[in-house]
Design a protein that fits this description.
By secondary structure, the chain is α/β, with parallel strands linked by helices. The protein contains 13 helices and 8 strands. Helix 3 packs across helix 13 and helix 6 runs parallel beside helix 7. It binds orotidine-5'-monophosphate. The site of orotidine-5'-monophosphate has 20 residues, from strand 7, strand 8 and helix 12.
Amino acid sequence: MAEPRTFGDRLAATFATRGHLCVGIDPHAWLLEAWGLPDDATGLREFGLRVVEAAAGRIGIVKPQVAFFERHGSAGFAALERVVGAARSAGLLVIADAKRGDLGSTVDAYGQAWLTPGSPLEADAMTVNAYQGVGTLAGPIALAREAGKGLLVLAATSNAEALPTQTAILAPGGSNGGRAGRTVAAGIVDEVIGLNTTTAPDAAASPTVGSFGVVIGATVDPARFGIPLEAMAVAPATPVLAPGFGHQGAEFSGLRERYGAVAPFVIASSSRDVLSAGPSGISEALLRQAEELASCLG
Ligand SMILES: O=C(O)c1cc(=O)[nH]c(=O)n1[C@@H]1O[C@H](COP(=O)(O)O)[C@@H](O)[C@H]1O
């Protein structure tokens, strides 16, 4: 059977067959040491490939954190290419956690790096930030539509320092002027919902999940940001990348209450908590977490 054309369709298929768990591939120096691996490009590659091997067939989504590979320069990027390639070949959805953002002409190149079919770092989706305006993302948005890729835009992040900025109130004026009075996070979410509704004609007959999602940390209260959860759940739903489970304190048992109507479209991400099970324990830890998550969502 042909692979679903859009990221949203592939995500919907993954939710149905492999569930909602995403493991973050975050090779912190202390984790490399705990795994008995060197803190260099060979260690990164080995770590990433072992996580991919553990994830394949057990869960559906991996999220390599680019920063840890970037620490080792070009050799780190070569390791990341191998890990991303292995994950995609294993049928896992790959979200490149690159958190790129810039003015339009520059962000276009970031989009090309991570979303162009056949590019060395090709992923299924990437994280981006829109603090220079969602409009700056026009290039990656167009590329994602054309290539069947996805974007996950930071809205309400899991870290406490973000609260004052992301709950700040939008001023009138500019292309986002109609959203004046709402929070920065809610304005971003609203614009991303709009991207999904305007993509629909091109996608499957009635897509259930859109290709453009937002990041809403599992440690925050979406109501505090005025985020319209019900509107996000209207088909094609705006998926949510939800980091913060495990090490940052969020629990799967709180997921339904936190995300309300949009809970069925949440990608629940955990890195350190799962990775600290080590190379011999990670497969079992992934299965256990996937089961727990499924029972909380079921
Ligand atoms: O975009 C992300 O993935 C992200 C957004 C956010 O709001 N908070 C957040 O922690 N993340 C990422 O998710 C991962 C969380 O890792 P753990 O706290 O170890 O599970 C890190 O790679 C973060 O960069």
